[in-house]
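ingest -> fold -> write
write: protein_1
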Amino acid sequence: MKAIRPPIIVLGMMLLGIAAVTAELPEFNAGAAVNMGLPVSLDLLSQGAEIKYEMVTEKDSLVVYRLNESTGDWVYVSGDGSILVARTAEFDFDAMEDLRTELYDAIDFIAATGTNVSAEERKDAMDGIVYYGNYHSLKYPFTGNCEIHLVVPNCTIEAARFSVDGSSYYRGECSTCDRGHEYYINGTKITFCARPTLSSHSGYCRVPQVEITERLMEGTFNITSKDVADDEEMTMNIEIITSSEPQEPFLLYAPQSGAGITETADSHGLEALREATHLDI
């Protein structure tokens, strides 16, 4: 069953007007949310949170607890299966990974306190993750060598990274056949994968993720690959965090066909985060 993600306004309104809070509401600067699309047993969840975490508040349709033994992040769980994790630290790639982990942990905690969560429901929820931060993601599936243009709008880039999903084949029969795929931005190599030093055999390697923050600014960038076999199916991932929301979206397009790919991430800014986490205290 595909998880249903409610509009952000609904989530924000759901959390308004809640009293009996036992901790002062901090100013959150990063967050992530999912919706499992199934009812949660909040009575059992609140009992478990009292023991394992620090309870903030409990109402008929909402439980809020704080991860007091680790990051101090706040976790909001509603009776309809919506989960939001919020933190005071700035949104960056490390924070994004932490928030994903804490959402996984929240789902595990919900499952351990009386709600039946299937593997499919868990996957669907995480596939529909919403970030609170100026996060942008573009995915480009390709087969064989590719050439794609990245259009960067007028914005300040805080961080950017490049990765490729899929394994790269390398040939081990000669001293110059030791590399798998190579990837370039405007003709400059940014990452590749290679045969292990002590291996003389053919095999597969994975292209390492690489930071590209300093390589991007407003403009159009040519991204190309080398030595990708015609039958190798890969997916290129470009992730970018900006200081504010750009007026125009990031865009990938193929120069041969003109076909474009727009951003695939679902993200909202800090104003939406603070609305969604508001509590009357």
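write: protein_2
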Amino acid sequence: MRANHKTAPRNASGQLRMHGLGLAVLAPMLVAPLLGLATLPASAQQYQTRDRVLAPAAALLPVALQNVTMVQGREVRLGHLFAGISDDRNSIIDHAPQPGERRIYTASHLYALAQQHGLDWRPNSPLDKVAIERASVVVPAEEIEREIRDALITQDRFEEIDVDLFNRSVQLHIATDRPMTMRVEQLSYDKRSQRFQATITAPANDPEAQSVQVTGRVYTLIDVPVLARAVLPGAVIQQSDVAWKKVRQASLAGNIVAQPEDIIGTVTRRPLAANRPLRSTDLKPNLLTTRGDRVTIVATTANMRLTATGIAMQNGAEGDLIQVTNTGSKKIIQGKVVGPNLVEVVTRGQVALN
């Protein structure tokens, strides 16, 4: 009986020690829910096994939280979340987000990672977090349009076309560590509506490529004469002033001047900018003679050249046929304007100025 009395306290002491050890093990688990903490995110669990052994308390590495980290590669490392991580402890703990996307690591995730990797860090608040972004660039809409245009020219044998996306705000991200390449897939074109649809994948031939669907319209381009430089009102257009430009045929109005010979030698009615199609209302003939002007009438044959004075009865540009009154004979004759106030009369065999 005495032996039994001595044994009981030892058993009670052993139970107390076991109970104390259980509390020590359970304490973090009980405190964690109060702080809003949880386990590692599912995306990081595959990296947990190889780093399972916790460092002893004396080896805990003091660290601080990062704020927002831009990840250049395909992995998230411990140093992306915590500042003060040495190179030898900068383990891979997760896959990086998709280009252009962001992932949030909450206080519970961060605390679990700190415990797993022997870091001296505890959350100050359940609101502690770190944002991880995958560094990327957005493909400009102009680049997508150029790829589609080239694909349409190859596929449908267009000569000169331009394309416009209907959804120009489309966001296609390419990671900064990947090549800036694209591939056009599932391209279709309706000739009746002149519309297309396609899938754009970037980077091309990359297992982690992103894809977006785009739609738009095709425009046929034609060459039209334009001014090579800006001009003021009253300027006479010379051949050196004319250049060519490709424009969308659908955008041209009915009064657009399509031939350079209809521009050269004319006079501008208003200030005109360079590289813009010209309308017939922008120009007027370059009059060398106006009605009522005193003109010189010239008649030329193989043997002689006669002149007389007359009054122009019509306006005339170079090459125009106008009527002129001979001031001497008062007769009305017809001649061609060949220069400023100079009218040439051409007769067959006989000169009739009188």
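write: annotation protein_2
The two ends are 167 Å apart (CA to CA).
The longest strand covers residues 210-227.
pipeline exit 0
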